[in-house]
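agent: user wants the structure for DNA polymerase III subunit chi from Qipengyuania benthica. delegating to structure tool.
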Amino acid sequence: MRVDFYQLSRDPVEQVVPLLARKALQAGQRLLVVSEDEERRAAISRALWSEGGAHFLAHGEAGEPHAARQPILLSETCTAPNEARMVVLADGRWREEAGGFERAFLLFDAAATQDARELWRSFRNREAIESHAWKQEGNGWTEVG
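agent: tool returned. relaying tokens verbatim.
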């Protein structure tokens, strides 16, 4: 499994998730976006819809009708009725269930940096996990680890 750590220093989660979602869809993947915070999920949903015209990112909320058909599914847990193999942990909190996906994106802000560093160090001892770290610089992202 691969885990990508995204340190958010400039853009909020609701701006970063649509970028990752678009990349996942372009790669032919389905995506699960996890946050326990209902307001954050609502903000992410608005951002996915406002991508503009024909380019909006179709999505739904877990527990709603047709959740299994959604290419992007928003949820408070790591259960993926849409059979996603990629998960975005949009609330900065690692869940061991994320280890069941092929790829996980952990988005965290400055307040969660120490927890992310400890998690990164713990993954060094786990052969089954390949970790990458990304930091916002200028207008883009730079891999830092």
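agent: one observation worth passing along. Residues 69 and 114 are 37 Å apart (CA to CA).
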